[in-house]
């Protein structure tokens, strides 16, 4: 296990990726973040719809719960799509997951407030969800890169 490097040390990402990561290495990091986020947001959307439509939870609460529940999946997607599968030990995975929750906490607050305001204004639930995803996506990109040890210059 000594050859496992922490994801937070961004210098460990190979310059020349090989294997399954080779095609992804041709995409700029911001593009890989968008791809990872797109996959994660599709699952987030489905979970949000389930909580809102089938369970009957209010729009702002269903958005927040779905967001919180989708973060561990997003960590896996970021690891393999954005950061090209850099490996860690078990303890550093949980440290990274914690950092991801902390970095997304600002997005959760922004999203909850934005969702609540749009719900009060009578904005369609799906439209409100889309506006929220765009707003929180921008905040998340900056916060995740800072949490993972990189300033957003890409």
Approximate strand percentage: under 5%
Number of helices: 5
What does the average pLDDT come to? Answer: 77
Radius of gyration: 16 Å
Keywords: Membrane, Transmembrane, Transmembrane helix
InterPro entries: GtrA_DPMS_TM (IPR007267)
Subcellular location: Membrane
GO biological process, one term: polysaccharide biosynthetic process
Fold and architecture overview:
- With 154 residues, this protein is mostly helical.
- It has one domain.
- The protein is built from 5 helices and no strands.
- The protein has helices spanning 22-25, 29-55, 59-82, 90-120, 125-147.
- Helix 2 packs across helix 5, helix 3 (59-82) runs antiparallel to helix 4 and helix 4 (90-120) runs antiparallel to helix 5 (125-147).
- The protein is elongated.
List keywords for this structure.
154 residues; mainly alpha; disordered N terminus
List the helices and strands and how they pair.
Elements: H1 22-25, H2 29-55, H3 59-82, H4 90-120, H5 125-147
Short description:
The protein has 154 residues and is mostly helical. 71% of the residues lie in helices and 0% in strands.
């Amino acid at each position: 296990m000594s050859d496992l490097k922490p994801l937070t040390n961004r210098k460990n990402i190979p310059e020349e990726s090989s294997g399954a990561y080779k095609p992804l290495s041709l995409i700029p990091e911001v593009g890989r973040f968008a791809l990872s986020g797109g996959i994660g947001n599709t699952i987030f959307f489905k979970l949000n719809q389930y909580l809102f439509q089938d369970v009957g939870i209010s729009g702002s609460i269903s958005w927040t719960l779905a967001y919180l529940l989708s973060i561990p999946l997003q960590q896996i997607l970021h690891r393999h799509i954005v950061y090209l599968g850099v490996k860690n030990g078990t303890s550093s995975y949980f440290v990274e997951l914690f950092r991801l929750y902390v970095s997304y906490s600002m997005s959760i607050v922004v999203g909850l407030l934005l969702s609540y305001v749009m719900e009060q204004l009578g904005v369609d639930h799906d439209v409100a969800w889309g506006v929220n995803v765009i707003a929180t996506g921008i905040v998340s990109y900056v916060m995740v890169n800072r949490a993972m040890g990189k300033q957003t210059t890409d």
